[in-house]
Amino acid sequence: MKTFCLNFIAFIWLCLGACHAQTANPKQDIFPKGTTFISNIPYASDTLKKHLLDIYLPPVVKSSYPLIIWVHGGAWMLNDKYADMGYMTQTLKKFMDKGYAVASIDYRHSTTASFPAQIQDCNQAVEFLYQHAIKYKLDRDKIALIGFSAGGHLASLLALSNNNNIKEFYYDGKKPGFKIRLVLDFYGPSDFLSLKGSEVNDPKSPINLLLGAWVFDRPDLAKIASPVTYIDKNDPPFLIVQGEKDESVNPTQSISLSLHLKLAGVKNDLIIVPNAPHYGVMFDAENIREKIAQYLDEFMK
């Protein structure tokens, strides 16, 4: 009877542990069997829920893994580090199959902290991964970013400003040590000063809420928050993906970013997905995955 009770308690403990793992990572089933999940790692030495990140290590055993950092979208005020994964399942599988680690990061919403809090958080998360690369079996010299919508904006801003020393972008005012090798930008806004209409006229528009001010009242702040401001010849290559029928981010934002990069001599390609809206499974298409693989093979090896 005693043995039965002990076995029953052990069974219950395992079940509770399984339930906790599923709660901690609701996207676990997306990843291949054998993936290592390291969830809810605090990157800012505090207890904020938005200062957590997850690491996914591929099934293949290696001494270290090149790293792709996932920056979620949500108008800077919605979603979490699991967002956008649900419609990019084949792309995530591609990353794992090619032996890349993925780290998904959270950042503070604009509803609780105005810009530059979001870019400070992203820089701090990337620097944490860079400084703790050995612990998590990551190759600190091979870091790429992938971002969606607001996350595309933050990924672009982080990478393009990395050649500069914008103290306001760092939580402690100190320039981080990491370098970004590649940016995969999915429909991220790039130039706030070129926006018009409801994008900036509505006081509750995501960009005005992000800045904590009207774009027209603070063009200086809008410029500081725009990725195109920081483009120079030493920036990493970009693969930019944009929906033709995007109702939230005008395709001209991606076109402008591509042209600015080209003028500066920065390698980039722009894929306009025919009839595609702001997000969805159309961005997980085989031709886009193959182009991503080409960029990874060229710039992350």
From TrEMBL:
Domain (BD-FAE-like) ranges: 53-259
Residues making up the signal peptide according to the UniProt record: 1-21
Keyword vocabulary terms for this entry: Hydrolase, Signal
UniProt keyword annotation of Hydrolase present: yes
Keyword set includes Lipid metabolism: no
Listed transmembrane segments: none
SUPFAM superfamilies, sorted: alpha/beta-Hydrolases
InterPro entries per UniProt: AB_hydrolase_fold (IPR029058), BD-FAE-like_dom (IPR049492), GDXG_lipolytic_enzyme (IPR050300)
GO molecular function annotation: hydrolase activity
Pfam families assigned to the protein according to its UniProt record, in alphabetical order: BD-FAE
The protein's name in its UniProt record: Alpha/beta hydrolase
Protein species of origin: Mucilaginibacter sabulilitoris
